Amino acid sequence: MADRYLHFTGTAPGRFLTRKLGLPQPARLRRWSLETQSLDGPLLHLTAGGSEIVQELGAVLATTGLTVVRSAELAPRPAGIVVDATAVATAAGLGDVHAALHPVVRSLAPGGRIVIVGVRPSVEDHHQAAAQQALEGFVRSLGKEIGRGATVQLLRIEPDATASAESTFRFLLSPRSAYVSGQVVELTGAAPDPATDPAAPLAGRTALVTGAARGIGASVASVLARDGAQVICLDIPQSRDELARTADRLGASALPLDITADDAAERIAAAAPGGLDILVHNAGITRDRRLANMPADRWTQVVEVNLDSVLRTTDALLDAGTINRGGRIIATASIAGIAGNTGQTNYAASKAGIIGLVRSLAPRAAADHGVTVNAVAPGFIETKMTAAVPLFIREAGRRMNSLAQGGLPVDVAETTAWFAQPASAAVNGQIVRVCGQSLLGA
What we know:
Strand order of the largest sheet: 9-8-7-10-11-12-13
Largest sheet: 7 strands, parallel
Helix content: 25-40%
Radius of gyration: 22 Å
Number of strands: 13
CATH superfamily of the largest domain: NAD(P)-binding Rossmann-like Domain
Shape: globular
Number of domains: 2
Distance between the termini: 28 Å
């Protein structure tokens, strides 16, 4: 459904009126396309205080395809700014972050990207922990004030494993991350597997996407196919015709299957005789009602589809070796599972459960199977489901984020594709909200 307010604020009368009334003025986001594959302009690489990774980080930033410069005078209108704050270890050292960004933040190009690079807060040095945790509050606040479609993230890396951040920088400093802002991403030191073809990083890999007949699932399947994966599209038998059309459009295969079936894992394995490299748990349902009015069957249906089926099929596919080493498991959570939502105790419980699954399974899956486990947590995404929401609730959902607009299914898909890349081995156990930095939740 078209966002008429976004269109109106893009006109001269709309800009004038909304400015006078103090209303949100969302900027039209630049998403990835064949014509817009990268940001326009140089990347400004700054350092807050001293740093031991200046050269290594500079080499990684060069892989983004942007021209990296170290002086603001060489980048009067930077498309991106990266501030290396890995050496900030005291409260006073936070002043170096201010000193680095304060003179240049206004010069960031519309739709630009800011990434603060930090390290994990120490459990042994409470001064370092305080300073590094302070960066999170800084990033979330800057994301809410910067405007003009720009985004701000905090990336925590292992200082001796800077190269593991390549795929993450390529994602965060590109149009693919247009609706991701205010996020904290922590990387492990796992070495990336280089892609043989940067234009098709998923070539030679087999992906299965549940709930793929329409909406977010169809978009995920489309982006994975665009990036070279051979995709298996799964959805319930009742959606067989729509599923077949989606699969045919992508050159994918269709698997009509109820993911809650007792033999779901066996049938998935049979559909992928060479094993799966990417498993995307996207299937989900809602049965909204306040708890006092919610019968047991509405609770059970949501938990069974959204959470229990994910747990059972994941366990079975890992135990059977169906998910190949170097594989990726990506689940779909929701900001409802983080912040809660009236009338959605069942849905929010199931999506919070996905977060618990990811945090617990990720380190064990990596150690035992060589597989990473992550989740996307969408906010207000423009789909047929949200188009049916009453007008005023829909408008509140669209505007209550730092970008003052709803996201698109492709925004969730692009984040999923970043998780799925062979080069993203260091991205594990992460819950990334695709919500334009919703004002709800952390």
